[in-house]
Amino acid sequence: MAVLVSVIIPAYNEEEDIGKCLSSLEKQSYKNKEVIVIDDGSIDKTKEIIWGFKKVKLIKGEHRGPGFSRNLGAKKARGKILIFVDADMTFEKNYIKNLIEPIIKEKIIGTEEGRQIASNQENIWSKCWGTHFKDYSYQDKGYIFRAIQKKEFFKMGCFDPKYGYGDDATFYFKYGIMSRRVKNAVCYHKNPETLKEVFKQSRWIGASIQNKVIEIKGINYLVPLFGILLSPIMIVALSIKKCHKNGNFSLFLPMLLFMTYRYFGTLNGLFRKIYFGMNVR
To answer: FRET pair for 92, CA 20 to 30 Å: which of 49, 120, 212, 240?
Structure first.
């Protein structure tokens, strides 16, 4: 009999995307699965949309971030393999089947998808966020654990919410353990679509940066200041670099605006982390 898989989804105000995510999971070729959504304190119609999917288990959580919610879902999961996805993701039909195959056949700890494609490529800010797709298929090892043996997940102490945006890379940060990237596991992920979303996502990423300099008391307090002083040079340089990487210099003017929001969003996140110890989405 096929191994039972638990798909765990943290959701905070995801009314625009959670339905598409759950519909995509329903169409997966791998059928022996349970889907668990942890509501992270949503105040929109996220819960009402989830209730429309009869086979989905909804757990009431707290607004403490995705790491906390993922751990809560794992504690309620019945599957031997845990899969952690985001509410704004959709998937090719063999995604789960391909993602878990190395875990089942080779008994490895966990895996990550080989390709993650932007689902909103037509949006100007999505284009500026990076290349239209993220292709990791040339790399054998990854830093995050999209799928993992449940017994190994709990043995390593679950995800650590203090890592914020990077909580699913906990086992790499703490133990140097890497996942296997599965080349034929393909998913689609939504990039920020407004400048406000760009700023908020960048702020979360900034607060989650792991760097030894940020841990040095005294010196770390100067990091945001230096970031502000260097901002005119850095924003232009990063904009040129992004356009060159994408091979599209027609994006240069919107890229300058985009990079301004992303740069200062990142600095804001660093400031909140260094001065107030804050790392929340």
So the answer is: 49
